[in-house]
Amino acid sequence: MSVLVVVECADGEVKKSSLEVASYGAEVAAMLGTTATAIAVGEATTANLATLGEQGISKVLYDAEPRLKDFVNNAYTKLIATAAEQEQAKIIILANSNIGAAVGSRLSVRLKASLATNVVELPKTTDGQFMVRRGAFSGKAFSDVLLSGDRKIIAVKKNSTGAKHQAGKTAEVVTFAAQLTDADFADAPTQVVMQDQAGGILLPEADLVVSGGRGMKGPENWGLIEDLAKALGAATACSKPVSDVDWRPHHEHVGQTGITVSPNLYIACGISGAIQHLAGVNSSKVIVVINKDPEAPFFKAADYGIVGDVFDVLPKLTAAVKALG
Amino acid sequence: MKFLVCISNVPDTTTKITFTPDNKEFNKAGVQFVINPWDEYALTRAIELKEAAGSGTVTVLNVGEADTEPNIRKALAIGADDAIRVNAAPQDAYFVAEQIAAIAKEGAYDVILMGKESIDYNGFQVHGMVGEMLGIPTVAPAMKLDMSGNTATLEREIEGGKEIVSVNTPFVASCQQPMCEPRIPNMRGIMTARTKPLKVVEPVGEPARTKVAEFALPPKKQGVKLIDAENAGELIKLLRNEAKVI
């Protein structure tokens, strides 16, 4: 009986969202009086995997099969299922990412496990019940879900419980061979295209987000959003109308039918705050709204607000961030 | 090519979410239900691919009680050929996946499409479960889907980019934008939808594995602190010293 944590890696490093997942797994293991083992997917170095000790992981399994560098649904599912059997894992924790959800759902059938995705808190285990709180209604509500059965899989939403660090602790990295065959790679990608990341920060991984709406008046004005984002080290995002008219790519669309973000800081510029947009951002820790319309509904959901013209306010904010040094 | 498109019946995106006084159930009073917006991409793309091929069928499948039939008829009006309703409330993702897998197997469907997730449950689970139950590939979430004979080429979104994946039928894909421009029904579609076949079947399989104990709403914000536009730089100081987020 143990807890198995799936950590996603890229370019040799553990993804930041997976550090949070590792911490979550270690806390669940402590609750249950057992240890947390990680299985790494993607491209990782042994040295970087060993640092998962800082999140409370005791052992990391790593299969150096080169075809596992890119996400392959069947191969990842078999790899994790094999690790779960070897470790006799009763609880498997993943990130609520496109990879985590795709693999987690297949795993739940293969391992006869109950599954909760989009989980935002540590589980509660009282009266022999196992309950997790998860986001529902696209950010408009939560549901407390009881998981049945011997085996449980939990996909943790980013920025929910946070990553813990205990400096100096290292995890043992153990070579793992899942004996994958060519058939397991039948759905391997023929090509992987990454977004241009020159100086940019990926929205799903971002702690700080600067977002623009129709109030920005046109794509030619996005330099103002990008300048502030760059000064803060933030990702850029947009509202649905903006991506609908192709001012910005759809992967920047935040909202009920776009992506749901939960950064520490969300700055909304020229976005009125339709209920569908609020659903996508309301788990942000701090929300700032800049809008010239004092009646914009977004102000009701904000922590800080400026009633003013984004074209005047944004350069002032960028200058103020730069002045902080 | 036989397409099976799975749709769920969800509260309209503008719905203010409330629960029954004991917080055990979603309060449906006065709520307008629609076809899950993500499922609309799956439905429209299936119809487009059928039209492009000049042959094939699009069957729409819903797991729900009789009150979902208006939206099933809407899917037929948009262009699906026939429909199946599994007569049961969708208890959880596993239960729904069992129903879809059973029907997909019985009908020998080639392409099983659905939205990325439902906007009420937000599980993002059913596609993978169905694929695993049937032992066929799943591509999720898919932003693009093209067919050439029995081979599909899809773009799958991953964090920070996309993968190009090629799979043979049968397969499952969960769909999202910018796959297509979802269609709305026209008058002719609405008229013909009335007489298209809608079969009702009873559920099969094992019971659900998860159960909602209670719902909760997010905590209310304390109220906005307004900063004068002339002193906009003050906001940055507050974010550093008071909110401590930068």
From TrEMBL, chain A:
Binds 1 FAD per dimer. Transmembrane segments: none annotated. InterPro entries: DHS-like_NAD/FAD-binding_dom, ETF_a/b_N, ETF_a/FixB, ETF_asu_C, Rossmann-like_a/b/a_fold. The keyword Transport applies. The keyword Transport applies. Its cofactor is FAD. SMART domains: ETF (SM00893). Keywords: Electron transport, FAD, Flavoprotein, Transport. Residues 3-192 form the Electron transfer flavoprotein alpha/beta-subunit N-terminal domain. GO terms for biological process: fatty acid beta-oxidation using acyl-CoA dehydrogenase. FAD binds at residues 214, 270-277, 291. SUPFAM superfamilies: Adenine nucleotide alpha hydrolases-like, DHS-like NAD/FAD-binding domain. GO terms for molecular function: electron transfer activity; flavin adenine dinucleotide binding. Belongs to the ETF alpha-subunit/FixB family. This is Electron transfer flavoprotein subunit alpha. It comes from Hymenobacter glacialis.
Automatic annotation (TrEMBL), chain B:
SMART domains: ETF. CDD domains: ETF_beta. Signal peptide: none annotated. This is Electron transfer flavoprotein subunit alpha. InterPro entries: ETF_a/b_N, ETF_b, ETF_beta_N, Rossmann-like_a/b/a_fold. The keyword Translocase does not apply. It comes from Hymenobacter glacialis. GO terms for molecular function: electron transfer activity. Keywords: Electron transport, Transport. Coiled coil: none annotated. It comes from the Bacteria. Residues 23-210 form the Electron transfer flavoprotein alpha/beta-subunit N-terminal domain.
